[in-house]
Amino acid sequence: MPLGKRVAVGSDDLYLSARVAKEFLESNGFEVIAMGSLKTGKPEPWPEVGREVGEAVSSGIADWGVVVCYTGTGVSIAANKVKGVRAALCNDPETARGARLWNDANVLAMSGRLVTDIMAKEILNSWISVQEPERGEIDNIAKLSLYEEGKRKAKVAVIVIDMLNDFVTGRLGSDRAASLVPRLSIFLEKARNAGATVIYATDSHIPGIDKELKRWGEHAIRGTKGSEIVEGLKPKEGDIIVPKRRYSAFFMTDLDLILREIGADTLILTGVSTDICVLHTAADAFYRGYKIIVPEDMVESISEEGQKLGLKRMEELYGALVVSSEQALRLIEAPDPRA
């Protein structure tokens, strides 16, 4: 396949070759998604780095990847455990060129010990110089897919959290929440068409009883206009509504049971507020073993500070994949890399 511009680059330590690869790609117009040590600034387990980069490529989050460990062998083995990944260990330019030309490799593995800064650039130049595999190898490359067993699509549910009148235009509303409505409406329609189940998790409070009301004042009181889903995001046929009385969409609700009954294993979280109800829902999803995806342009907080804090905590504490809405939609169609 032609090389795209989104590249997942991961390393199990801060090797010079890994840092140079990241800088080289960025300087040449590629969008780099840093993973492993390049993201955390500290050593990370090589199996996790290889898997993370492999899953990013398999799911469509990245078009291709680069992985680095001491020998380059471990991360290449780990990446190749992910379905759809063809990782090649290349410590010289000609091997890199051949991996693209004859094998259509989509993850480049390099040794942090052997590859110098100059060699890393030469390897990457050779790799990106090949846009398409040699035509005579197409049939051989296609055979690799036949060797993969058990490929399946992830079952995805989109959770729409608290997109209610009171949180959009009411007493707890904001311009940021209101701006989310039109773009979320488009996203939900595309998600439905792609086969995702849409579930609305909606505050539905009982006056005089729910403790949240003491913290925030009366809002989303059951049966009132404020507790209704905002115009522009009304549920469609086949959508599900799950009332809730706490921040988390899971706490004392039917959400987990519904998700298990429909076979969902991957959740795309949308709505408000990023640093409160979305964050607490992500925590409970993590505790229950769901894969969590958060499109950063499909969630909102009342402030930019709250937005950044919520996204950071979901990513760091609960392993959420924070992506764009475009990338999230591609994930709905992608085969599950864990299958």
Structure description:
There is one protein chain. The chain is an alpha/beta fold. It folds into two domains: 6-147, Ribose 5-phosphate Isomerase B, Chain: A; 156-333, Rossmann fold (3-Layer(aba) Sandwich), CATH 3.40.50.850. Helices cover 42% and strands 18% of the residues. The chain contains 14 helices and twelve strands. Strands 6, 7, 8, 9, 10, 11 and 12 form a seven-stranded parallel beta sheet that branches. A five-stranded parallel beta sheet has the order 2-1-3-5-4, sandwiched between helices. Strand 7, helix 10 (212-216) and strand 8 form a beta-alpha-beta unit. Helix 12 packs parallel to helix 13 (304-318).
How would you briefly describe this protein structure?
This protein has helices spanning 16-27, 37-40, 46-59, 73-80, 93-103, 117-128, 138-147, 165-168, 175-193, 212-216, 255-262, 277-287, 304-318, 325-333, and strands at residues 6-11, 31-36, 64-69, 87-89, 107-111, 156-161, 197-203, 240-244, 266-272, 291-295, 299-300, 321-323. It is an alpha/beta fold.
Write the layout of secondary structure elements.
Layout: E1 6-11, H1 16-27, E2 31-36, H2 37-40, H3 46-59, E3 64-69, H4 73-80, E4 87-89, H5 93-103, E5 107-111, H6 117-128, H7 138-147, E6 156-161, H8 165-168, H9 175-193, E7 197-203, H10 212-216, E8 240-244, H11 255-262, E9 266-272, H12 277-287, E10 291-295, E11 299-300, H13 304-318, E12 321-323, H14 325-333
Helix pairs in contact: 1-6, 3-4, 5-6, 12-13
